Amino acid sequence: MTDEKVTRREAIKKTINSGLALSAVASVPHWILPALAQGEELVPFSDMPEDYSRGPARPGAPHWLDTRMISDFYTDNMDFYVVQHYGQPEIDLDDYRLKVTGLVDEEREYTLEDLQNMSQFDIDAGFECGGNNAGRFQGLVGNANWRGIRLRNILNASGVSSEGTEVVFFGADSGTEAIPNRDTEVEQSFARSLPVAEAMREENILALEMNGEDLPQGHGRPLRLVVPGYYGVANVKWLTQIHIQDRRYMGRFMGRDYVTLKKEMIGGEERWVENSVTKIQLKSAIVRVTRLGSQHKITGFVLTDGTPLRNVEISIDGGPWREATLDPRSTRYSWKLFTMDWDPSPGDHTLVSRATDINGHVQFTEEEMPEKASRWENYAQFPRTIRIS
Ligand SMILES: Nc1nc2c(c(=O)[nH]1)N[C@H]1C(S)=C(S)[C@@H](COP(=O)(O)O)O[C@H]1N2
Ligand SMILES: [Mo]
Fold it and tell me: Residue 345 is part of a domain; what is its CATH number?
């Protein structure tokens, strides 16, 4: 590992562990570390099972985090949620190749070393799985610093030809998919696509590193796409091929899964419309309440598609909306943690947050959500209940 890399990793680790009592660091396994200050306690939510806890991520397995433990801007690589649909392919790094094919002036192939030697940048990006929901207490979420190559540089190095309209990203993982009404199955890779104009956005990154470490196996080692502002499904892990074509890619994760079926008015007609899960919908959620003496603190996160926020507000027991404080480390595409001090009376309380963007768009309540028949994109306000003793 280069010195520069060690320094970056140390800097990120330092923010991850800040606020911890030293004794806690030494004695408690990191995955249950509530990152509490001296004398601080986690106050249980009454909408969660009393014994709710989440174990550490296990190699190869999916994982979601206990969102009550969110207290740091960067999610530890060991606790960042893990989702994949065909298992985690082991890629031999010596044989690894990234191929760029299709409607380009020059098809290309890169070794890992070629990629490592290209100019790098880094960006903070937070995202959630399009299937994240209240039932999981929003645990399919995380925020990290990604470092790698600008996607646009790779596309420009091959030269997208004028007929090229869509960029397809293939992962090394594949599974058998049954063909409806036919007694047959085919092997399909995980893949997603983006229109060329979207793919050319300067923030899109082919990430080699996550929080200053080589990309962990579960997060796509050695290379993954991150499309800041998009739901997790866009961020193709174990990336091995980029293909430019003249039509939208229609694989399972574009056309069948991760498709939101919504009721829309189309030219005055009510229609059920299918949309691929793409840009993150404005969302906030309260996930943590801590107590130091009688002083309580409420913490939550906001996700956006990159549209700047106007504010995030909290209402307690149906009372007035009061503005919460946003973490100053927030960036355009990171999650935005927010906090508010609270001096509650004993008894049962309801807490809810709502985010508003600079266009005045306010996060919907459950009742205001567009009518939707599928389980994707759950961005309604998330009321929490808590008992103060
Ligand atoms: N190759 C590949 N990439 C993938 C997936 C997959 O199954 N295979 N799942 C996607 C989905 S649905 C999500 S939510 C994110 C999760 O990324 P993470 O495991 O790093 O949090 O990866 C995306 N990228
Ligand atoms: Mo997902």
Answer: 2.60.40.650
